[in-house]
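User:
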Amino acid sequence: MYGSLGPLSTDEQAAGLKALERLRPFVDLSRVGIWGWSGGGSNTLNALFRKPDAYHVGIAVVPKPQVQFYNAEYQEIFMRTPKENPEGYRTGSAINYAEGLRGDLLIITGSGETNTHIEITEGLVDRLIELGKRFDYFVYPNRDHGLREGKGTELHVQMLIVRYLIEHLPPGPR
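Assistant: Predicted structure:
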């Protein structure tokens, strides 16, 4: 994964889904959801955009869809600098694969983000709009990366995620 965060884990997880179906016949690969927070949110975007046949619903909480704008101190541990590794940064940025979105997507962030700044996410929002993609976007005012500030916020985030999954991946066979 060194030098290219995103593509390898996306491929491995999609392969894991197929293996799970072989091992457990009750697994229904026609209705797979994925969600994640921060790096997991980025993974969710990569999964939906790069493997649209494998993933049907995704929830990306405070993702980093443009890794070149993310916290350099952290990113450069795994990727070196954008100047040293431009291809790794290109292939590691989910925004560059947004045209692949076919499933349902909810993006959640906070307007007070100090880790994954809201501008990083809004670049993706603009790209999805440009592509004419359907998606949902929820911004918590003045909340930081953990989305914990403000009375009731933590419960609201959890309920938003649960409601989205119930609405877009209802229980039971289809």
